Amino acid sequence: MRRAVRDIPAYPFTPIDVPIKLDQNENPADFPAELKARAAEKLLALPWNRYPDLHAETLRAAVARYEGWAEAGVVVTPGSNVLIKLLTELAGIGQTVVTSDPTFSVYTLEAQMLGAELVQVPLCDDFSLDVPATQAALDAHTPGLLYVTQPHAPTAHSDSPQAVRALVQYADARGWVTVIDEAYYQYAGRDYRDLVRECPNALSLRTFSKAWGLAGVRAGYLLASPQLAAQVQKLVSAFNLNFLTQAVLETALEHPEYMERSVREAVAERERVLAALSTHPTCQALPSQTNFFLLRTPDAEGAYRHLLARGIVVRRQDKLRGLQGCLRVAIGTPPENDALIAAVRELR
Ligand SMILES: *Cc1c(COP(=O)(O)O)cnc(C)c1O
């Protein structure tokens, strides 16, 4: 077995069974029941003994229509985490992966397991990208893969479009495959398709796991130039996407209004929770452009245990660079958020 694999700990997640789950940034609303029924009808009509589309052609066409994108520039896989692995295979192995510190742990795990040189550039104190330091890191290494997460995870911060544009154009011009991970873009009300159109080495990574409320279905996709997408598509195994997934996603894409409504509700709830916690004497709820926020506490361990005792599970992030005392809290349903606000108010 390869040392790089043996040396890496398993993905750090322990499921905890409590009533209020705010630890995975999921959509608190289930996929609407009438859409589940429509997806089930599609499934019942399909011959299950046959292989699905080779490369999910029908679904890719539906994604392309929804996004206003060329079909040949769309790649769909079971979760965007699979695309992160494939992109590391495409541009990271034997080369360099550049990302921020802190960052989304899947980027660094895949880079380490697949044997890419990993370079992490610290975020500025206000959580913005350090553009000059990242440009210097690109200059100091052979090109490979650059991650720009917008809005950023786990900080929930959005950078200025000028900063993102400057960094992505710089990387693109020097041949770096640049991933703009837009897992939470709906909650920020802004996206970077225009920039991806201008930059042939850049792509947008998107998921059905958050705003679309389909984390259990496992699906994500990228938008890129047809040339770049064709290279990624080579790395996708044949028949990778089963038609159960395809039927559900086609149904979702036919009814995007349910997703848009749930995003409006999450944004309103986020602002309500942040306002309610803004006068807390010891904890600081940090601003957010996503469906989660960081809660900076004087004692992360104690705060985590207190919330758990109230039936609420969140994610500790206090060991990450610059996130001392921080818990990551997803926005839940209004009653769940009320319970969270009450439990945080008990903290001193
Ligand atoms: C949740 C999340 C994803 C989505 O991953 P899936 O495999 O599609 O569920 C991607 N990137 C970031 C930064 C995320 O937080």
Automatic annotation (TrEMBL):
<dbReference type="InterPro" id="IPR015422">
    <property type="entry name" value="PyrdxlP-dep_Trfase_small"/>
</dbReference>
<protein>
    <recommendedName>
        <fullName>Histidinol-phosphate aminotransferase</fullName>
        <ecNumber>2.6.1.9</ecNumber>
    </recommendedName>
</protein>
<dbReference type="GO" id="GO:0030170">
    <property type="term" value="F:pyridoxal phosphate binding"/>
</dbReference>
<keyword id="KW-0032">Aminotransferase</keyword>
<dbReference type="GO" id="GO:0000105">
    <property type="term" value="P:L-histidine biosynthetic process"/>
</dbReference>
<dbReference type="InterPro" id="IPR004839">
    <property type="entry name" value="Aminotransferase_I/II_large"/>
</dbReference>
<dbReference type="InterPro" id="IPR015421">
    <property type="entry name" value="PyrdxlP-dep_Trfase_major"/>
</dbReference>
<comment type="subunit">
    <text>Homodimer.</text>
</comment>
<keyword id="KW-0028">Amino-acid biosynthesis</keyword>
<dbReference type="InterPro" id="IPR005861">
    <property type="entry name" value="HisP_aminotrans"/>
</dbReference>
<dbReference type="InterPro" id="IPR001917">
    <property type="entry name" value="Aminotrans_II_pyridoxalP_BS"/>
</dbReference>
<feature type="domain" description="Aminotransferase class I/classII large">
    <location>
        <begin position="20"/>
        <end position="343"/>
    </location>
</feature>
<comment type="pathway">
    <text>Amino-acid biosynthesis; L-histidine biosynthesis; L-histidine from 5-phospho-alpha-D-ribose 1-diphosphate: step 7/9.</text>
</comment>
<keyword id="KW-0808">Transferase</keyword>
<dbReference type="Pfam" id="PF00155">
    <property type="entry name" value="Aminotran_1_2"/>
</dbReference>
<dbReference type="InterPro" id="IPR015424">
    <property type="entry name" value="PyrdxlP-dep_Trfase"/>
</dbReference>
<dbReference type="GO" id="GO:0004400">
    <property type="term" value="F:histidinol-phosphate transaminase activity"/>
</dbReference>
<keyword id="KW-0368">Histidine biosynthesis</keyword>
<feature type="modified residue" description="N6-(pyridoxal phosphate)lysine">
    <location>
        <position position="210"/>
    </location>
</feature>
<comment type="similarity">
    <text>Belongs to the class-II pyridoxal-phosphate-dependent aminotransferase family. Histidinol-phosphate aminotransferase subfamily.</text>
</comment>
<keyword id="KW-0663">Pyridoxal phosphate</keyword>
